[in-house]
Amino acid sequence: MRSSNPVFSRRGFSRDNGYAGFNAAPQAGGPAVGTQGNPYAQQGGNPYAQNPYAQQGLQQGAPPQAPVTTGRMTMDDVVMRSAMTLGTVVVGAVLAWALLPVSSTSYGLAIGSALVAFVLAMVQSFKRTASPALIIGYAAFEGVFLGVISEMYNAAWSGAPFQAVLGTMAVTGATLLVYKAGWIRVTARYARIGLTIAIAFVAVMAVNLLLVVFGVAPDGGLRSNGPLGAIVGILAILIGAFFLTLDFKQIEDGITYGAPKEEAWLAAFGLTMTLVWIYIEMLRLVAIFSGDD
Predict the structure, then answer these.
(1) How far apart are CA 223 and CA 212, in angstroms?
(2) pTM, whole model, 2 decimals?
(3) Which of 20, 57, 200, 271 supports an S-S bond with 253, CB 3.0-4.6 Å?
(4) Would you call 50 helix, strand, or coil by DSSP?
């Protein structure tokens, strides 16, 4: 069964828990390759279920072809939606940095914006279809949050946001290179192990936050500005890189198997959340390595 939450499932798993394109080979007399491994085929009542690959009588082992009909997701669609979403994050961040001075009020506004962004992200995550309004709204509020905290980090550690941006770009580029080179294969087993680690990490960080709030770990606990905090930060960035591989696979499969054009918004949504995750963790890491509290 697919997870109902694309924040963790990335909508890439087919009904039999196989990753799209990595299902078991069809048996003789069974469905053709075009439907056996295609998460966008066999959607009863869905106008996109009339997949051209399902009607071409592809034989076992034949490589899938690029979509030739209109209304299918393309790389241009993904790039455009991602540019719109990430552009909204950047605009929100720049405006927040320029208009909101470093103060307790600004910090409170940043926390409020982060909560609104979280709610919008959760609503979109549990929806079956993409909502551009929710995704752009999430990006705008996330941008305000990032702008305020980036300005605060810059006030304490000059140049930290710029270094974090460079670090985020380096991690993204390296992950894409490794993925395209085939050094990482996104299989169902790979995804399950990675998601288990990611969920466990989030749970531990939530407990750590509670300990900090209630004064049990006043120095930040696992998020302290020391060697332990640096190790946790590096692990968080590696988890972000893992999510990037799921994002790349989602995009690749969506284009290969003829996903509806609207799925490009979900691809942009996933990429934006992952890049925000990596940037925040990179910002923490830069602050730790800068040395001064």
Answers:
(1) 9
(2) 0.79
(3) 20
(4) coil
